[in-house]
Design a protein that fits this description.
The complex is a heterodimer of chains A (114) and B (110). By secondary structure, chain A is mainly beta. Chain A is built from no helices and eleven strands. Classes of the chains: A mainly beta (114), B mainly beta (110).
Chain lengths: 114, 110
């Protein structure tokens, strides 16, 4: 199984809502990533988890809150978002994050903040 | 200045043409990755290279470490190859963090 799954596929939320994005992999990968991608731009790294611990936070606003409940699951909790947070949110995983590995990407969640 | 530069930004080709996309980088790397993104989102890893050349079907990727340059070639292009192709590098000293190029949008016309 070389698949990374993400739910939901699409999400529309108001600025006062609280919602969560979910990412799952069953490849035994020890590193998981959240990226934000705006239209016609490359992905921007938000967070990296390594062995279920947060190892990189790229100065992401606190309205985005990551969580790694176990080695297969990664969540991104959203609260009080702004319209400019509308984007495609991609999750990825790799064997590790200590050296170069392939990253396996999920299909993404397209988020619209109204 | 982006550490990873790609060219061209946009490319239109006739079906059957040979296509080349270029990637240059300015930092020491442990690996270079070629990724494909179709409209609608998902990103697929095509190649991970640290030296030489790799081939998968109609796709060929090469890297020249001394010149800090990589190319992705598509032979006998097909409309289903239409996608954005992204070059990314893993720095020598930042583990598996990817640094992305701006992407090349390829359209193959039947």
């Amino acid at each position: 199984d070389t698949e990374v799954t993400q739910t939901p596929k699409h999400l529309v939320m108001g600025m006062t809502n609280k919602k969560s994005l979910k990412c799952e992999q069953h490849m035994g990968h020890r590193a998981m990533y959240w990226y934000k991608q705006k239209a016609k731009k490359p992905p921007e790294l938000m967070f990296v988890y390594s062995y279920e611990k947060l190892s990189i936070n790229e100065s992401v606003p606190s309205r985005f809150s990551p969580e790694c409940p176990n080695s297969s699951l990664l969540n991104l909790h959203l609260h009080a978002l702004q319209p400019e947070d509308s984007a495609l949110y991609l999750c990825a995983s790799s064997q590790g994050e200590d050296c170069a590995y392939e990253q396996y990407f999920g299909p993404g969640t397209r988020l619209t903040v109204t | 200045k982006n550490e990873v530069e790609q060219s061209p930004q946009n490319l239109t080709a006739q079906e059957g043409e040979f296509i080349t996309i270029n990637c240059s980088y300015s930092v020491g790397i442990s690996a270079l990755h070629w990724l494909q993104q179709h409209p609608g989102g998902g990103i697929v890893s095509l190649f991970m290279l640290s030296s030489g050349k790799k081939k998968h079907g109609r796709l060929i990727a090469t890297i020249n470490i001394q010149e800090k340059h990589s190319s992705l070639h598509i032979t006998a292009s097909h409309p289903r190859d239409s996608a954005v192709y992204i070059c990314a590098v893993s720095h020598s000293n930042t583990g598996n963090q990817f640094y992305f190029g701006t992407g090349t949008s390829l359209t193959v016309i039947p």
